[in-house]
Amino acid sequence: MLVEAGARFHQADLSSVADTRRVIAEIGREVDAVDALLLFANRLSPRRRETAEGLEHTFALYYLSRYLLSVELGPCSTRAPIRSSSASPASGPPPGRSTGTTSS
């Protein structure tokens, strides 16, 4: 259904600034306007991990890539209203820690 509506899928390693910029350039070459941007990531790490570019992995994946996509796809989004949706893992207290709620 999405393909019939003209949707396109672009795979990229969004923890990599270089690959994020590659996919931004690819999208810019293919379309005049971006109608919707759907971003999905499902990765949590119990320890600090750096990307090949020296950035903290979670920061690069969940924040920096979204910033770059928003800013650098900006010219495409000004030609049409853009709807953006980001999905990431749910966060909560670490295992064994209370949420602070009590039951009667």
TrEMBL record:
InterPro entries: NAD(P)-bd_dom_sf (IPR036291). Residues 80-104 are annotated as: Disordered. Residues 80-90 have a biased composition (Low complexity). This is Uncharacterized protein. It comes from Actinokineospora auranticolor.
